[in-house]
From TrEMBL:
This is Stage 0 sporulation protein A homolog. InterPro entries: CdaR_GGDEF (IPR041522), CheY-like_superfamily (IPR011006), Homeodomain-like_sf (IPR009057), HTH_AraC (IPR018060), Sig_transdc_resp-reg_receiver (IPR001789). May play the central regulatory role in sporulation. It may be an element of the effector pathway responsible for the activation of sporulation genes in response to nutritional stress. Spo0A may act in concert with spo0H (a sigma factor) to control the expression of some genes that are critical to the sporulation process. The lineage of its organism: Bacteria, Bacillati, Bacillota, Clostridia, Lachnospirales. The keyword Phosphoprotein applies. The modification 4-aspartylphosphate is found at residue 54.
Length: 519
């Protein structure tokens, strides 16, 4: 940090220099001027952050000098030093947002306190301004990337980058960090983007923005040598790794004219980013594309993977998945593009298989939710073992839900089991839901099959069993209410209606009939 002392009396300058503990406030350079005109030259060339100025100077006064600085937008912090305590001077100094108004002779404690206050205020002011500038640049870059690439937005964006104003080279590069392979884990993109933006801004290297609704972070990078950009981007990825525990990879485009070449550069950078090898244990930056074969074919998923579900052999299912992950492990290359393509093919066949099973089981056909679990480890790296575990878990859940244990048993046998269950449990509050759960099949499939195989509805069959049981109990002399409760129909009135419907007479009439009497 730099300071400037302005006073037309050199002894005063000497005293101020001796009184202030410059090192304590991290001020390493102190300039001296005896006039405002002399000070203007230093201010333009050196841009000191702290100014200690007398008010009565030859020519331009200290107040007029600072007013000129404020009109130019300077945020340098000013401490006025004067032998006069005139109200008009103090009032003007306050209007110019000065830190302090000190009276001569200067005291060590007061001047050091003023310098400390000035340094703190400068840092706060610059910090707020930098935060605002950084946010403005980020918002403008985001708007440009999502607005159809309007040149007027790009012009506003570029003018918001302080270091770009001094550059004559108007070219740039575009980078992409993709987190698509981790989107299933609900990775918080914006904290990562903010970290990237902060790093690039601090290093005067560029800007970062989340690209649309994707899990991609786009980087606008000032043009430079490839090796220098690689080094900067690796440092960025290293910081993200330390902060978020993620091993990420970046794709960087070639040099393009801005803004005309940005569209093509973005596609190039994205292509590189989704082609990075996720087996890498360290972050990487790619400038060249390496062709990678697909992970597998849709035919393998359709003809080999899903048929393995029906065999009810856990070992065989796992070995089938391991066949695929083993292939990936042997190639040593797995990319985001491979995983995206595989997920798309897997979800397509998965939905097709679930819809067909819903129809077979007589369930209401509903479009299933897509499988979104990440195939990669939480830190972003690919692991064949993790891939196998994730895929097997999903397939096993599908088997459990859509391939009941009784799958493969004939419908007649299932209906016989239903009959036996009802005969043994007719006295309980038996529901269709409970019965279908006991048999491991859907309610609609059970109802349809029972009617077809047995020739009557499940409810009618259960009612017949209950009324047959009630006949024997009526013979024993039990009250009708007790008989109703004993056969699983606790409502006596309802029992009477059901009994009459099946037997053609009420329970009391049937009791008399069995005794040989007639009504």
């Amino acid at each position: 940090m730099k300071a400037l002392i302005i006073d037309d009396e050199p002894p005063v300058i000497t005293v101020v220099k001796l009184l202030v503990d410059w090192k304590k406030y991290q001020i390493d350079t102190v300039f001296e001027c005896v006039s405002a005109e002399q000070a203007i030259e230093v201010l333009e060339s050196e841009k000191p952050e702290i100014i200690l100025s007398d008010i009565n100077l030859p020519g331009l006064s200290g107040l007029e000098l600072v007013e000129k600085l404020r009109d130019e937008g300077s945020v340098a912090q000013v401490i006025f030093i004067s032998a006069y305590d005139r109200f008009s001077y103090v009032q003007k100094a306050m209007q110019l947002d000065s830190v302090e108004y000190l009276l001569k002779p200067i005291e060590r404690e007061s001047v050091n306190r003023a310098v400390e206050k000035a340094v703190n205020r400068y840092r706060e002011t610059v910090g707020r301004r930098e935060d605002a500038e950084r946010l403005q640049a980020q918002n403008l870059f985001t708007a440009y990337m999502s607005s159809g690439r309007k040149p007027e937005i790009f012009a506003a964006f570029r003018s918001a980058l302080p270091w770009e104003k001094e550059r004559t080279n108007r070219n740039c590069r575009i980078g992409v960090m993709s987190l698509r392979h981790l989107s299933g884990e609900n990775i918080a993109l914006y904290p990562i983007q903010a970290a990237a933006q902060d790093f690039l801004w601090r290093n005067h290297a560029g800007t970062a923005a989340v690209w649309g609704d994707s899990a991609d972070i786009a980087l606008f990078l000032s043009d430079g040598e490839e090796e220098a950009i690689r080094t900067a981007c690796l440092q960025l990825l290293s910081e993200i790794k330390k902060s978020f525990g993620l091993v990420l990879h970046a794709g960087i485009s070639g040099t393009v004219p801005a803004p005309d070449g940005i569209e093509e550069a973005y596609r190039e950078a994205l292509d590189l980013a989704v082609s990075s090898n996720l087996y890498h244990t360290e972050e990487s930056v790619d400038f060249r594309l390496i062709p990678v074969p697909p992970a597998t074919s849709i035919l393998w998923i359709e003809k080999v993977l899903f048929p393995a579900l029906r065999e009810r052999n856990e070992e065989h299912l796992r070995s089938t998945v391991e066949e695929l992950s083993g292939h990936l492990e042997r190639t040593g290359i797995v990319t985001i593009r491979q995983l995206e393509n595989f997920r798309a093919m897997y979800n397509s066949q998965r939905s097709k298989w679930i819809l067909s099973r819903q129809k077979e089981l007589g369930e209401t056909v509903r479009l299933p939710q897509e499988f979104r679990t990440s195939f990669c480890l939480p830190d972003g790296r690919f692991s064949a073992e993790h891939f196998t575990g994730v895929l097997c878990t999903d397939l096993q859940s599908l088997r459990k839900k859509f391939l009941p244990e009784n799958e493969g048993i004939s419908t007649l046998e299932l209906c016989r089991r239903a009959q036996n269950f009802l005969k043994e449990n007719y006295a309980e509050d038996v529901s269709l839901e409970e019965l279908s759960r006991q048999l491991g099949i859907s309610q609609s499939y059970l109802s349809r099959s029972f009617k077809k195989e047995i020739g009557e509805n499940l409810i009618d069959y259960l009612t017949r069993i209950r009324t047959d049981a009630a006949v024997d109990l009526l013979k024993s002399g039990l009250r009708t209410a007790d008989v109703a409760a004993a056969v699983g129909i606790p409502d006596p009135k309802y029992f009477s209606r059901v009994f009459k419907k099946v037997k053609g007479m009420s329970p009391s009439d049937y009791r008399e009939y069995m005794k040989g009497g007639r009504s």
